[in-house]
Amino acid sequence: MDEKTNVVRQERHQPARLDDVDRRLLGLLSEDGTRSYAELGQLLHLSAPAVHERVKRLKRDGVIKAMVARLDGCKVGRTLLTFVLVNTRNVASTKRLLELSGLQEIEEIHTVAGDSGVLVKARLRDTEGLEDLLGKIQGIEGVDDTRSYIVLSTFVERGPSALL
Prior knowledge:
Layout: H1 3-13, H2 20-31, H3 37-44, H4 48-60, E1 80-88, H5 91-96, E2 106-111, E3 118-124, H6 127-138, E4 143-150
Antiparallel strand pairs: 1-3, 1-4, 2-3
């Protein structure tokens, strides 16, 4: 790994400096990102401009990556949630998997420790969509095999909590 990559990795994993108000603000936003700065200010006992400045800082510092709507996969026609473990031969073949990151059905790609090198989270219309995705993954040079886990029920699905 070169020095520049190492510095970027260290910066990415360096926790931001957050006070209790920041953490409460992040909790409120993660529950409902549509709240106005005025409403957030009332809940936090701050002025709306003070909340706005905190949100701007949290975005600038990379704590808030995006303000997005969390969609119900079934309601938008993507009823099949699956996790695919991918065994790759080396780092180069793992990086080739990133070519698939533009596919709308892929929600997450992670390198992992353990028996497999990569974990892919995908939300598809049906098993035919999964079969097509597996074909694309297995068609990448250096992919040895895949193992799929189809989700039957989801009880908890959320992002990280700002509270420690």
